[in-house]
Amino acid sequence: MQMYPKVYLAIDNCVLYKRWTSPDAWARVIKDLGVDYIEASADTELDPLFMGKAYLSDWVDQVREAESKYGVKVCNLYSGHGTYSTLGLTHTDSRVRMHMLENWFYPMIEVAGKLGCGFGFFAHAFGHEVLQSAETYQNYVDILTEMLTKINRYAKERPCGRLGVEQMYTPHQYPWRIKDARELIGRLTQGSGRDFYFTEDVGHHNIKFMRPEKAALQADNVYGVWLGTDRAFALANQHGIDAWDRIEADMDRNGHLFSEKEDGDCYEWIRQLGCYSPIIHLQQTNGRASAHLHFTREENERGIINGPDLLRALKESYEQADGADMPQKSDEIYLTLEVFSGTTSIMHDVLKDYRESVRYWREFVPEDGLSLDVLVGRL
What we know:
With 379 residues, this protein is α/β, with parallel strands linked by helices. It has helices spanning 23-32, 48-51, 53-70, 81-84, 94-115, 134-156, 178-192, 230-239, 244-253, 266-273, 297-302, 307-318, 347-362, 372-377; strands at residues 6-12, 37-41, 73-78, 118-121, 163-166, 197-201, 279-282, 332-337, 370-371. The chain has two domains: 6-207 and 260-377, TIM Barrel; 211-258, no CATH class. The radius of gyration is 21 Å and the shape is globular.
């Protein structure tokens, strides 16, 4: 008999950063929005590099008090803009990599263990020079795998929940293709002796980095065309279409820089790998930009993300055969609204739109903890 996961609706509290910053404050606001499960962002006063050990210990106590007071649960911790803006775990200097490991990741895992929740993140990037060689690129993939293996082994000794890295959508932010994500979580599961997962963000997809056809250079215009390495761009700038054979040969040698059409389709990601994504970040998008928009009527008319298609695609992923080297399929899925607020946002308006987003998703997840097949059967 096919086992389907329980599905929950959650909110990432990053939308409240610099506004409602204490656990009591953001728990109260999110409960008022009609959601009981919370993803706690490092941006909302939880970053170990900024806060320190004593604060983090008090923060855990404050979260427990807020959970009891408002009837909510911190289901996951998540990284924020701070770690996203650095080379982090794949820094060119090994001292920085170890600093991130020991002073950011390990404290976050300790907090997740104390709260008994999961932990998702994206905290690395490959510098531009890394992209110029398939061999160098693979070396940095191996560095990333080594660092994530250490992290997952550390988590194995703590009572925290599932760990997973967020998928991205550009060559310098790995994993950015379906095959990369599948390979990475398989390698980490086998190498660390503990299941490792990923986070699907429905707005992290585009087709900008697909390999171009010769016709793309017919007008000798290289702007807006992705050719891969600096060498390929230099050839195009100097010789235009006359250098196509050499450009094509360079692309042949550097397949790590090019995606397939399926990589730009969030529903295809979910159909193939959704069962290994215990956290799915929800934002409305037109499929070309990750703007983290609300699910208001106006945005939904322009956007490509909708509840029925997402749940059906997710159910398909649970109905496929288990992968030999893959983690166990997740028995819980947190559909997590991740909508941003800006410096000049009027928060009264933001919360109004958030209520509408919650109402939209409550049409498809009317009660937390229902089985995926039950939800799909109600569509």
